Fold each of these.
Amino acid sequence: MDKKGPVKGKDMNDLTVMEDAAVAITNGNVVWIGSVEKAMNIQAEQTIDAEGKLVTPGLVEPHTHLVFGGSREKEMALKQQGVDYLDILKQGGGILATVNATKKANYEELLDKTLFHLDRMAMHGITTVEAKSGYGLDRDTELKQLKVAKEANVKHPLDVISTFLGAHAIPPEYREDPESFLDVMSDMFDEIKENNLAEFVDIFTETGVFTVEQSRRYLQKAKEKGFGVKLHADEIDQLGGTELAVEVGAISGDHLAVASDEGIEQLAASNTIGVILPGTSFYLGKDIYAKARQMIDSGAAIAISTDFNPGSSVTENLQFIMSIAALRLKLSPAEIWYAVTVNAAHAISRGHEAGSIATGRKADIVIWDAPNYMYIPYHYGVNHAKTVIKNGEVLYE
Ligand code: NIG
Ligand code: FE
């Protein structure tokens, strides 16, 4: 599976599957791929027998809100009563409740919690993770989150790629003046860049949060400072966020649950990857799922992610999301596998090192308790990962 760029459209059905294959690893990288028979001639220090089970690249998570304080299980009752996600936010709950908990948590507490969630992701076969800030909404707390993500990348074997999502919600003190709030956040760009605290800048373009015009200006500034840009776009209301993602040359447009047909056409003709997060539709009890089938049929490149966060998708198990992608998005197993490996890696600029088993790439590999690749989305809700290898080292078995 040595793919140079994202896999688009109908090519997402063309999965490379090798039978009786073997991989040789040196210094954390894949150095050889061939048949088991030929591998018998290699003098290896250590051998792992996959026993004929499914072996794939480690899963790549291109969209998570990994670093946060507290939890919001009390919102479950509100959800059951039919209180809308954006209404909970309007009343100071939702994202803003997590903002308060994140402000209260000290650095060590946040780091421990982050490492805990990373462990859980690793156990489920994830080897690379994008992590957004966005539960600070003030300079100090946003920096605290970004520093935690940076230290987690060093302390934990998984690779953590950081995104600045200071524009995640309007804090109450800026309710009447979101523009000034965006200025406070964009004033942090230089400091974030100089300290290598984030590679990407993201914004929540949504009713009651930031408008398309505000998002455009903010992302242009981020681009001028050398950041790659991403958007939470067309998640709940159709505002034209998909079109904006294409217009600003975003590396990914994320959610796209209510993208317009025009937006989908533009996405297909662009280099922007659609990061689809069906776990949020499921978890928020919505009947509307992203038209991922139409996106792929139109020629777009799609990735899939958990959107792991404390409010709209509370799971570290990407395998479960793969099942939702099969059942609700009607994607084929091959499309789903590309969406959680090759394309997910490209959605966070890691296509050169993650998302595929190929010579010269990192040896991030999972052996699954599964007879074939179709089995994982089919047998849902459990963890199939048997052995997780990160940088050539066994992390879990
Ligand atoms: O991707 N949409 C905005 N942000 C997150 C939810 C965050 C939260 O509810 O805490 C999302 O769905
Ligand atoms: Fe998100």
Amino acid sequence: MAARLKGKTILITGASSGIGKSTALEFAKTQPEDLKLILTARRIDTLKEIATEIGKQAPGVKVLPVKLDVSVPEEVSAFVGGLPQEFREVDVLVNNAGLVKGMAQAPDINPADISVMFATNVTGLINMTQAILPIFKTRADGGRGDIINIGSIAGREPYQGGSIYCATKAAVRSFTDALRRELIATRIRIIEIDPGQVETEFSVVRFGGDKAKADKVYEGVEPLTPDDIAEVVVFAAGRRENVVLADTLVFPNHQA
Ligand code: NDP
């Protein structure tokens, strides 16, 4: 695994917490020679702390923390255009940034919540994809790279009170499938990993900060840890080039 990640540059969105943070730490843990990590999110101070943590655990790994809001196309293109030479040849994009806002029955959903969920979970992921694909296509070693999209079980099994979030993740799924077909003749791998319940900041935000309510919904289910998903992401990126984990659902045992 480490050998296949040797020299790779991995770009992770939403790397300041939860699954994104764990994914950064998991890549660093494999300690391949000359690994480079670009960690992005809006909370730059947290990213810098994570970079310091990686620096202690895996001093050979180079880390670039960057403040980035994926929902703002101009920010995304300025970020990609301004990448330092050493980090420019991105090999793997992990489109992980995502959020949920204001769970409510459809008639009561706040229009601002609808906009922010689509802008982040769908448009943000597309912004990043559009910005990175030209790097993959024009690289000296012949048009390759991985896009790993973090979807959700919610994109397959919509639930009451979560219609907009579920719709965003269904959109991610459709976009990912179409993109894979568009790029079928290339060496670019399009991968989707769909988590079930994972214990992160997200799991409580989802219930308006009400942890007791969150616990009740998942009574009897031991949630996954962010590391469980991070391990699958790193595994997918570390397969030999002809192997694509196109569509992987990962949920805790007993989750209905
Ligand atoms: P967290 O809330 O812990 O992490 C979400 C990350 O997204 C944060 O790093 C946050 O960083 C970042 N983010 C949010 N909005 C933006 C934005 N506009 N621009 C850039 N970064 C942004 O939740 P998870 O780790 O659980 O979520 C990660 C992904 O996993 C999401 O796509 C989520 O939908 C998905 N998922 C989660 C599940 C769960 O049960 N936890 C289940 C299934 C899927 P910052 O605030 O610093 O910008």
